[in-house]
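Next comes this protein:
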Amino acid sequence: MLVGMGLGIVGGHQLASLKIIGDIFLRLIQMSVVFLIFGAVIEAIGSLDHKALSRLGGKTALWFFVTTVIAAAIGLGMGLLFRPGSGLQLGQLHAKSAVQTASGDWATTILNFFPDNIFGALAKGDVIQVIVFALLFGLVLNHANQHQQFDGVLNLVKQLNQLTVNLVMLVMKAAPIGIGALMIGVTADNGLRVILPLIKFLAIYGVSTGLFLAALFLGISWYAHVPLFGLIRGFSRIMLVALTTTSSAVSLPIEMTDAHERLGVSERINKLVLPLGMALNSNGLAMYLALVCVMLTQLYGVGTSVTGLMQIVALSVLACLGTVVVPGGGLVALTIIVPTLGLPTASIALLAGIDWFSGMFRTVANVVGDTTTAIAIASDEDELDHSVYETIVHHAVNK
């Protein structure tokens, strides 16, 4: 990022043509996004135990949905309140299409959630329609596979998902070069004036994440009747791993271990909620996407109606389903939601340079959101061991 900005400032328009390397990098990510989401959602739903799906699946989905909407609403509100994109106008490119997308009527918006041809939705890259189909297909597969007669289909989906994730991870190895090339183009066109909103954006996103975590800890402490201090201490290692790895997938083993040993969640709830949350629940990403969309509308001078703001929240929530859980997943999600809102895909370059830093906040919010959901469901099912909190508090007091 720094080298790219430096070259863009020093070399100016002479080096602007190197931006094509960054554009190729973005396309390599985009080419597998829809297929990856399609398979990940089917696998997550289809792999659930059929009996658990009816009761625990409903509770899990409800908690995931509520916390994700809250996170997206916080991102939207903080963006409107502190205006990270104000003071920098990058032009009116595609502004008309953005306004049209944001101001569509509710009937059309809702109807467009449902595909009339799944192959057409896949070909067009209509992610929302693909997600709806994948959810329904996953439910049907789960129901039909009660006696493992469709294990071959489920295993095929799992294997395709693993190969697609490997492909994305291979492309992400070129991220430093791709991001550097993108930043050359951005700074060559806009100079240093593009950096200030990004620093402001990170600060606002960090504060938003802090507010969200505080709300989760206070809410779960009250709901599950566990001491707040013991709760935070139990989460300390999970948050540290998430912060340093910026990967929900890498954090999952520690998350599952500490959820059981330090936060008292039973193994049954642990194995159901946390892997599913890794694939389908991304509170931090929803907050990030909502905040990014508000910032980009401000950067490009695009006005949005109340309906448009509600659409931003809805898209931020839906775009999290099945999103990549490896580092760089935020960049992948941006390639989904930015074109959907009619904003220029070139604007993704603005966020690509700070994706690792924003990924720190995203991952912490994601894993804490998943684990607090597991605690809440374990409490509902009388499968939460409260004694572990007493042990944590006792050890802390002795120290």
In short: Confidence is low (pLDDT under 50) at residues 91-105. The longest helix spans residues 50-82. The chain is about 75% helix and 0% strand. The CA atoms of residues 166 and 218 lie 38 Å apart.
